[in-house]
Amino acid sequence: MNTEALIRSSRRTVLVVEDEAVNREMLGFILQDQYEVLFAGNGREALERLRAFDGTVAMILLDINMPVMNGYELMDALRADAALSSIPVIVLTSDREAEVEALGRGAMDFIPKPYDMPQVILARVRRIIEFTEDRRLIKDIEHDELTGLYSRNFFHEYCETLAADHRDRELDMISVDVDRFRLVNEINGKAFGDQVLRAIADGIRDVLAGRVGIACRSDADLFFILMERLPDYNEVLRRIRRRIDDMEGLGSLHLRAGVYQRVDQSRPMEWFSNAAKSASGSSRNNYAKSITIYDGALMEKALYNQPLIGDMDEALRQKQFKVFFQPKYRIDGEKPVLYSAEALVRWVHPELGFISPGVFISLFEENGLITRLDTYVWQETAAQIRRWREELGIDFPVSVNLSRQDLFDPGLLQKMQRITAENGLPAGKLHLEVTESAYAQDVELMLQVVGELRGAGFRIEMDDFGSGYSSLNMLCLMPVDMLKIDMKFVQNLLKADGGYRILQLVVSMAHSMGLPAIVEGVENQAQYELVRQAGCDVVQGYYFSRAVDADAFIRMLRDSLKSE
Ligand code: C2E
Ligand code: CA
Ligand code: CA
Question: Are 294 and 260 in contact (CB under 8 A)?
Fold first, then answer.
């Protein structure tokens, strides 16, 4: 038996916190066959028991109204204690009002009093324990396997903590990458390329030794470092070069760094790493320059002074933005069936050429223009669905992306309804992708806004699921119809040991919530087969097709209709 199965099979400990002896006994009686049960009569006693207990408590069943320290107070105390904050709590209550309050304090689920349905209680306890443990396993992929540095998502999370813990220091975000690293792989082989990446990571560790800072490999040859201010950033590149200089067979590499100075907590950390990267990108063709400091004013000038960016209306009118479609296939049958698509925007700029959404979306989120662009994309998409209906006689659902900012628009629901109505579509044909991190940031608003959209018939897909931000209690309660699993799980499939098991877990989490699982980023057959085997319902990825323009997409639709 592997360790994981072993863990699964051992008896878990559950702590019941209840002041009424009758209730305590009843719960003990229900749980004792399957769990070790500890008891406490109020919050204070519970804290004492938890701190004295030298095993792991898998779950707390918590009454709210208790003397000395009540349930809410205990939840606050748990959250403030790093050793205890990850224990899931189910609240015992007869009062629906209390549920909202308890949710806000981190409760994962509720069990109504009186306890007249033991099976329901056991099922809930089991589900939440499994869920929490699965989630923890997933969290374990904090590190990049190749270099041992953090992986991207966790890096950004830990950056928040680092910044919060070191408010007194000036922290800078640095990006490091290698010019045309692809060539190293092509000329010297991938194994050698990996060696170079490990050496770069070692160089970065050298820089960080004895200093406040952390680092990650974001993807391929792109590294980020958040660290206390250095007098001279050449030191970073020098340290790295020292590690790679004596590597046999490696020609001269051109390393490039971008720096964003004085990171603060006013924006998400990813914004700063993007800014550092775009600074270094802006000197891409300048070999004399290895380090570029982000200069907000300069960037803004470069981007906003483009006459057409300043004038979004003009850019929209000139149709510089194009909506592309990437197909999604159902794979739960014998062979893949074209079933939906994701609308992805492209920008073909008259002077700058093709600009990737990875670059301009965050820019527009910054300056608030994103809502205008998104509305345009939704309109174009709805019009496209109508055209397919007219030309092919099919009702083909397509998902569009929502930015966090869209969700703050009080007129969002009306806007969506207007767009579908104008094109004679039922709401259900437009699927809305809302990224997991949006859910995590403003729980109550999300519950309300997304709930309303869903109530009106729009189908909600939680995008980038598993990227590590949302808390479990929210996941259980969020109004969603499908989970779209973050690409990193597919990327880890063939790399990381246990990558397959982890994907399976995420898929089973989706299924345990009664939701289909979509997997994106499937690039090759090997991944496809594993994804299928893991029980995913829908896939999207380069293996099937990249996002293509409307003309190419209608051909895909025709072909798929023919082959039916
Ligand atoms: P996303 O919503 O996670 O979209 C999926 C991204 O993964 C797309 O990148 C898609 O082209 C890419 N992709 C699909 N299959 C594969 C694959 O097999 N391998 C790899 N490596 N990548 C794959 P894209 O089009 O560059 O979009 C990037 C992000 O920009 C999107 O991520 C989304 O967050 C945002 N975005 C795109 N269009 C819109 C839009 O209309 N509105 C908003 N608000 N955001 C958008
Ligand atoms: Ca998406
Ligand atoms: Ca995604």
Answer: yes
Residue 144 lies in a domain: no
Q: Which residues of 90-108 are buried (b: 16+ CB within 10 A; e: fewer)?
A: bbbbeeeebbebbbebbbb
Q: Are residues 126 and 162 in the same domain?
A: no
Residues 351, 315: Cα–Cα separation, whole Å = 12
Q: Which two tokens stand for residue 547?
A: 């996002």
Could you report how far apart the first and last alpha carbons of the chain are, in Å? Answer: 45
Q: Tell me if 301 is assigned to some domain.
A: no
Both tokens of 69, joined, read 């320290």
User: Are 62 and 163 in the same domain?
Assistant: no
Residues paired with residue 93 on neighbouring β-strands, in sequence order: 112
In a domain, 29, yes or no: yes
Pick the more confident residue, 310 or 399.
399
The residue whose CA is least distant from atom 33 of ligand 1 is: 401
> Which band of pLDDT confidence, cut at 50, 70 and 90, is reported for residue 4?
very low
- Shortest-distance atom of ligand 1 to CA 345: 38
DSSP at 548:
B
**Ligand 3 geometric centre to CA of 269 (Å):** 18
Distance from the alpha carbon of residue 462 to the mean position of ligand 3, in angstroms: 9
Does residue 91 sit in helix, strand or coil?
A: strand
Residues 14 and 46 occupy one common structural domain? yes
Is 369 touching ligand 1 by the criterion CB < 6 Å? no
| Residues 229 and 172 sit within 8 Å (Cβ to Cβ) | yes
DSSP 70: -
**Per-residue pLDDT band at 352 (split at 50, 70, 90):** low
> Looking at the structure, do residues 400 and 547 belong to the same domain, yes or no?
yes
Nearest protein Cα to ligand 1, atom 24 = 357
> Is the sign of the CA dihedral 111, 115, 120, 126 positive or negative?
positive
Residue 324 in contact with residue 548, Cβ under 8 Å? yes
Picking from 26, 96, 95, 33, the residue whose alpha carbon sits closest to that of residue 61 is 26
- Tokens (6 digits) for 342: 């994701």
Q: How many domains does the chain have?
A: 3
Q: Minimal CA–CA distance to 341: which of 158, 173, 499, 540?
A: 540
Question: Is the C-beta atom of 377 inside 6 A of ligand 1?
Answer: yes
pLDDT, averaged across the chain:
86
Decide which of 260, 294, 328 is a domain's last residue: 294
Instruction: Give SS3 for 158.
Output: helix
Beta strand residue intervals within 425-494, DSSP E:
430-435, 459-465, 482-485
Q: Does ligand 1 come within 6 angstroms of the Cβ of 175?
A: no
Which residue has a Cα nearest atom 44 of ligand 1? 403
pTM confidence score: 0.61
Look at residue 433 in the predicted model and tell me its pLDDT.
97
Q: What range defines the domain where residue 408 resides? A: 313-563
Q: Report d(CA 397, CA 385) in Å as an integer.
A: 7
Distance 3 CA to ligand 2 centre (A): 36
